[in-house]
Every structure is written in C-alpha cells, then in structure tokens.
Design a protein that fits this description.
Elements (H helix, E strand, L loop, with lengths): L10 H12 L3 H12 L6 H10 L13
Length: 66
C-alpha cells in the first residue's frame, strides 16, 4: 500500500455527504415524508376480509370456463 493511499469514495457517496452537510434536516424530512405515506396502522380485520374475499386466478387468465 502506498504511503498516501486514500480509500475510494464514489461520486454518488460524495454527493450525498455534501447534500447532508448542506441540509442537516434532510434525513428528518425523509422520515416525516415516509411516515405520511407508509407508516400507518394495519387494520387486521379488514385485511382478513380481503383474504377471505379473494378469488383464485386461473392458470391462463384469458381462457373461458366451459
């Protein structure tokens, strides 16, 4: 290993580090945005109803039943 060897950091990694340095609240904004769309309580009763109402799909969708 050379004396002045530096570990490799890709351009993308450098960009993300620079972006986080410019906007320190970025990660918190991402978490709040994710919570707005994805982090919701699961309604187990409704989920069970959906499973019971599911109709099995035919092997070939466009084939009619004779």
């Amino acid at each position: 290993m050379p004396l002045f060897w530096k570990p490799y950091r890709s351009d993308v990694t450098q960009f993300i580090e620079q972006l986080k340095a410019q906007r320190p609240t970025l990660e918190e904004e991402q978490r709040s945005g994710r919570a707005l769309l994805w982090d919701r309580p699961v309604d187990r009763e409704a989920q069970g109803d959906w499973r019971e109402a599911r109709v099995p799909q035919q092997p070939y969708v466009y084939q009619t039943k004779s």
